[in-house]
Amino acid sequence: YFGPYPNVYAAQETMHFIQKVYPLRRCNGYQGRPCLYYHMGQCLGACFRTVPEKEYTDQIERIKRFLNGNVGKAKASLTAKMERAAKNLQFERAAEIRDQLHYIEQTVEKQKIISHDNTTRDLFNFYMDKGWISIQVFFIRQARLMKRESRLFPVVNTAKEEFESFILQFYSRKNNVKPREVLVPAGLDNKVLADILEIPVRTPQRGEKRDLMALAAKNSQIKLEDKFRLMELDNRTTIGAMKELMAALNLPMGHVAEAFDHSHIQGADPVSAMVQFVDGQPAKNNYRKYKLDADKTHNGADEAANTREVIRRRYTRLLKERAPLPDLILMDGGEIEMNAAKDVLENELNLDIPVAGMVKNNKHKTAALLFGNADQLINLDPKSQGFYLLERIQDEVHRFAITFHRQLHAKNSLASRLEGIKGVGPKTRLKLLRKFKTINKIKEAPLEDIQELGISKKVAQALKLSLTAEPTPARRV
Q1: Is residue 3 part of a domain?
Q2: Would you say residue 137 has pLDDT above 50?
């Protein structure tokens, strides 16, 4: 067993490296002729010859040694191949091998031993400035730092609240598997985090883990300072960007684009958000937030249903008010969201507004557009102004949606709303949190269901009475 890896992408990258450097069989077996992978040096040749068992076994052993961290022979072999390729003027091949060496240096050689056990750990730290928070996540696997991730977004509540909320939401993403232990800086409510995540949450006091915590804080600061520098350049790079975006979709020049994104935690407190860009610039006065009626009409995790609801509400209102319609609608996600939006516009509202899906790659970064009846993938030049605008729009609508969701979730969260109710202590709050997930579900639950958790009838009645007496949420838009 080798791993675990911090996410699917890291495992795939390692597999691709092994296929290039330690080829086994990439084809379906004997074909009577060499396969394409054999010509590329990524197959032992089982496609056209009998591979000796010893040759295959030796290759397996080399792979095992590499995965266990013994990379000296691999580096020496690759260095020799790179030098031969350069000597023979095969510069593209030499560059490819150079990248493979770089992969080893970045993922294996520089992995410092963090502890003396193989406990899987995720380490979180942050830096805040000018209303923005920058977060670093370090993934520690087999006592080594295997991967890093970073996130940046504006702060709505306190830095502590935003940071704790981020950690909890981080593990709701399907590719992020909970480790055996989470490491955080001082000043957080480690016990509450541990109770909700159901894994230990600790603050390192000394040694390599504390040094790593300081490094994560420093990296967070550097990332945020880089972000501020890019923000200063934003206004200088949008001229012609909207024109490029429309031209890539083979559409006439337009001025207004509206983008939508959804946010929820496993279907709880689902929201949508809409941002509007005019001639490549955000028109923040026209941004809109939507609390979705998922509890009444559909599952909050149903992206198609969420899309239909928000598109129906947005453009029914614009039609009613005879307000101008956008020249382009962008849906964060892909085919499901794009087709759901088109269905409502065309078949319910009789509107002809172009809709494109904003597609992300395995690194959760902007990659391309999905457009047209055949769901054609439109790739933009990553160095173009049009791509830069698309990236800004996707980042902005995601930020706006997730910020609104954090506000709503904090308002509705059991941990905050149940505090102060007589008879409802920390253990009872934890039981309620695990069973009901949301305030609305507690309100709707029969007293008997609440009492099944070991809560007395008197406390259950007081609980429902306190929650029912809460003020009605702000009106919908």
Answers
A1: no
A2: yes
Reading phi first (left if > 0) and then psi (alpha if -120 to 50, else beta), residue 262 is in: beta
Do 264 and 170 belong together in one domain?
Answer: no
Mean model confidence pLDDT for the chain: 81
DSSP letter, residue 345: I
DSSP state of 344: I
Q: Shortest CA distance to 287 belongs to which of 307, 316, 258?
A: 258
C-beta of residue 462 within 8 angstroms of C-beta of residue 423: yes
Q: Is the pLDDT of residue 139 over 80?
A: yes
Phi, psi of 352 (to 5 degrees): -115, 80
Domain boundary among 390, 410, 430: 410
Q: Bigger pLDDT: 432 or 331?
A: 331
* CATH (domain of 395): 3.30.420.340
Number of domains in the chain: 4
**In this structure, is residue 477 part of a structural domain?**
no
Quick one: which of 403, 356, 391 has its CA closest to 376?
Answer: 356
Q: Are residues 223 and 247 in the same domain?
A: no
Cβ contact 438:269 at 8 Å = yes
Q: Decide: 48 and 36 in contact? Cβ < 8 Å.
A: no
